[in-house]
Design a protein that fits this description.
Rossmann fold, seven-stranded mixed β-sheet, 13 strands, globular, methyltransferase activity, SAM-dependent_MTases_sf, Methyltransferase family protein
């Protein structure tokens, strides 16, 4: 996952501020990559990524992967790839569960950090710098038993259909996609901590033009200041995601919506539980915050 949460205020305090203009689809990679490249060092140094825990305990599994342990099943010996892996902490968690992992991300500094950290921990993980849409060209067709994508990844992509093409190409016949993502309903919301309101301010469905945010900071604890603060982002409705997979011959084997998220998505409106998940303080059944989707490629 990399804690790459789209739409969040980069201070971690709520959704970002949308600019009056919309961005051009053809420059989103350059804009987003500059933003992510600049934040890698701060993320690796922040206690929120818990790199010290990974070093201290060789059995440590990150919170996001731990949440889905009952759904992941036995990964021993599976060839897996983590798309949009950022600095690789969830990739390492999956390797610790027995999978032979690769990781891919468009950020060179993120991949360098991920590879260095995995090597230091003694994990044989190969990390690759590439845009997710180029993943199959870089990694090979029908090469993987497992394609894993974590929370906050899909919102950086303009086309969910192109993403689904990549997933199908990467998977071996009978291979499995495992996706836990922020719910598109949650991504569509704006929360006001001061007025106590939650409003639907952002698109639920995929749009041709990106939403453009211009906000400093980042979503982890850090004193660092940044100069590349513009991001281009998209939402993708559940129907769009499911249809993209189904029309490419994937079989959906499990789909579960959750009333919790692993971060405080709506500050002032959410409470954290003992497992580290956040949900609405009052009547949490009102809002799906995340979902877990599994699908297999037809053998």
């Amino acid at each position: 996952m990399g804690w790459s949460f789209p739409y969040l205020g980069k201070s971690g305090s709520g959704p970002g501020t949308r600019c009056a203009t919309v961005g051009r689809v053809d420059d989103y990679r350059v804009v987003n990559q500059a933003n992510w490249d600049e934040r890698v060092a701060a993320h690796a140094a922040s206690p929120d990524y818990k790199l010290a825990e990974y070093e201290r305990d060789p059995r440590y599994i990150g919170d996001v992967v731990r949440f889905d342990l009952p759904r992941l099943g036995d990964l021993a010996g599976l060839r897996g790839v983590h798309l949009q892996c950022h600095i690789g902490t969830d990739t390492i968690s999956l390797a610790r569960l027995g999978a032979r992992m690769s990781g891919l991300d468009f950020s060179g500094p993120a991949i360098a950090q991920a590879q260095s950290f995995a090597d230091r921990l003694g994990h044989e993980i190969d990390f690759h710098q590439a845009d997710v849409y180029d993943a199959a060209d870089v990694l090979g067709d029908a090469a993987y038993d497992l394609v894993f994508t974590g929370i906050g990844a899909l919102g950086w992509l303009p086309s969910i259909d192109r993403w689904a093409d990549v997933v199908v190409r990467l998977l071996k016949p009978g291979g499995r996609l495992f996706l836990r993502e922020g719910h598109p309903m949650l991504w569509a919301l704006e929360g006001s901590e001061h007025e106590g309101l939650i409003t639907v301010d952002y698109p639920y469905f995929e749009t041709e033009a990106p939403m453009v945010f211009d906000e400093g900071g980042t979503y982890v604890e850090t004193e660092a200041e940044f100069s590349h603060n513009v991001t281009h982002e998209w939402n993708h409705g559940l129907g769009e995601i499911l249809t993209a997979l189904l029309t490419r011959g994937m079989t959906v084997t499990a789909f579960e919506e959750h009333d919790s998220a692993p971060w405080n998505a709506l500050p002032g409106h959410m409470t954290r539980d003992q497992a580290g998940e956040w949900r609405l303080t009052t009547n949490p059944e009102r809002l799906p915050c995340t979902y877990t989707l599994q699908a297999t490629k037809t053998a």
